[in-house]
Design brief:
199 residues, Helicase, Ruva Protein, domain 3
Length: 199
Amino acid sequence: MQYSSRHLENLVDQLSKLPGIGKKTAQRLAFHLLRVDQKEALALSEAIERMRLEVGTCERCGNVAETQPCYLCADEKRDAHLVCVVELPGDVVALERTGAFHGLYHVLRGVLAPLEGIGPEDLRVAELVERVRHEGITEVILALNPTSQGEATSHFLAELLAKEGVTVSRIARGVPMGSEIELSDSATLVRALEGRRQI
């Protein structure tokens, strides 16, 4: 045993399983939880437990939800004719933070990855097609990550949804604000040039 307490060692092991958390960071977090007031440490434990017990998936859009439908799908002020397709629930949070999108979302819960055995049937593709057919959606915006798998998924969805008579668009990609053109990779510059618009 590396630590003088098997419970402390177990906590470090559990924390180190979190994404982006290595053993040293996990150890710092565990010792921090030992130092703070017991009430504060238990509040973290309770928050994790309540989240796991009470947070599920919206049956309509696939986002995280405590109710059916989720609060975004239930918001009548949102444009129900416009749906933004994202890979994961965290992408919804990022887009909502901008305050620029006022439509609805559809979370695929992944992307196509044939080498890993992930096909359309493993994603929420059929649910998206059903929504397009029955909810009066006029435009689907594809906002998938600019990876090879994200690109392949976008092309697959664009071809599939074109058969449904809905407009399919994708978010623009290019040089991010605050960066320098000479430091951008070729693929980013190509997308920036292709996605140019008149000012």
